[in-house]
């Protein structure tokens, strides 16, 4: 690290258990972020600020006025732009030493393997089950840690799934019915909540990348912001899971 980096990350380096070695690990880390919306906004900003050296941000949407109530990665001047372009500019303004590669594509079983193989960890902040299942299956095959999060209304959740530690996967939690659930456009979402869940995803990602503390490995944290109730559930691998069970993992 150079002198400027030592100053920039000084308060983080002081954290017991992270130190210089952990910061250097972050600088060398490569992360794939799926989604540059509400969850992705907090994740991208905090990982860039923390010094994660290389971010791949995948999103195919454009910034809309309705996004701005919660997607703080983008501003009014970005309306109509691709979210990946807006994200790249915002991250560069925050920490020019971080490399952000925009991935403007629908992610599926064809293009995900190359993206996942090139990173140390994957963070899922998308809002489509089809994409979530495809990301999960690819992470299982590549044995890459997956930090997944979701929000709706006043509720959110985050989990750390570790196929590299033979832990349960996303399909152990949710069956793939081929149907999409209602999203923010139908049910609404409180603006700060994606920031809370996305920030937790960023914290867990940093812990996994550096070995700091005890990550939420194989656990699901559920947040009811309306009554401020937090609940943590231990997860178990489903032997009958079509992705990580006794049979071979499938990407579809």
Question: Topology, please?
Answer:
Elements: H1 3-8, H2 10-13, H3 19-27, E1 30-34, H4 38-50, E2 54-58, H5 83-94, E3 99-103, H6 112-117, E4 121-124, H7 129-142, E5 146-152, E6 155-161, H8 170-173, H9 184-187, H10 192-210, E7 219-224, E8 229-234
Parallel strand pairs: 1-2, 1-4, 2-3, 4-5
Antiparallel strand pairs: 5-6, 6-7, 7-8
Structural overview:
It is a single chain. The protein is α/β, with parallel strands linked by helices and about 250 residues long. The protein has ten helices and eight strands. It has an eight-stranded mixed beta sheet with strand order 3-2-1-4-5-6-7-8, with helices on both faces. Helix 4 (about 40-50) runs parallel beside helix 5 and helix 4 (about 40-50) crosses helix 10. The longest helix is centred in the last third of the chain and has 19 residues, at about 190-210. The termini are far apart.
Features:
alpha/beta; Rossmann fold
Distance between the amino and carboxyl termini: 42 Å
* Overall 3D shape: globular
**Strand percentage, roughly?**
15-25%
Q: Largest sheet, if any?
A: 8 strands, mixed
Summed up, what is this model?
The chain is built from 10 helices and 8 strands.
């Amino acid at each position: 690290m150079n002198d400027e980096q030592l100053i920039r990350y000084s308060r983080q380096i002081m954290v017991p258990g992270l130190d210089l070695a952990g910061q250097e690990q972050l600088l060398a880390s490569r992360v794939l972020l799926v989604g540059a919306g509400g969850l992705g906004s907090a994740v991208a900003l905090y990982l860039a600020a923390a010094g994660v050296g290389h971010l791949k941000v995948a999103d195919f949407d454009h910034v809309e006025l309705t996004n701005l109530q919660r997607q703080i990665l983008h501003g009014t001047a970005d309306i109509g732009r691709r979210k990946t372009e807006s994200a790249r500019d915002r991250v560069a303004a925050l920490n020019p030493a971080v490399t952000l590669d925009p991935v403007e594509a629908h992610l599926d079983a064809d293009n995900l393997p190359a993206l996942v193989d090139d990173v140390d960890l994957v963070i899922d902040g998308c809002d489509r089950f089809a994409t979530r299942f495809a990301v999960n299956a690819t992470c299982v095959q590549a044995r890459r840690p997956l930090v997944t999060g979701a929000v709706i209304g006043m509720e959110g959740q985050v989990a750390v799934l570790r196929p590299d530690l033979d832990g349960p996967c996303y399909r152990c939690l949710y069956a793939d019915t081929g149907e999409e659930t209602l999203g923010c456009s139908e049910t609404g979402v409180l603006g700060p909540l994606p920031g809370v869940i996305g920030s937790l995803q960023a914290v867990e990602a940093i812990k996994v990348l550096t070995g700091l503390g005890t990550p939420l490995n194989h656990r699901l944290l559920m947040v009811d912001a309306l009554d401020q109730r937090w609940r943590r559930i231990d997860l178990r691998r489903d032997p009958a899971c079509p992705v990580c069970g006794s049979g071979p993992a499938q990407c579809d």
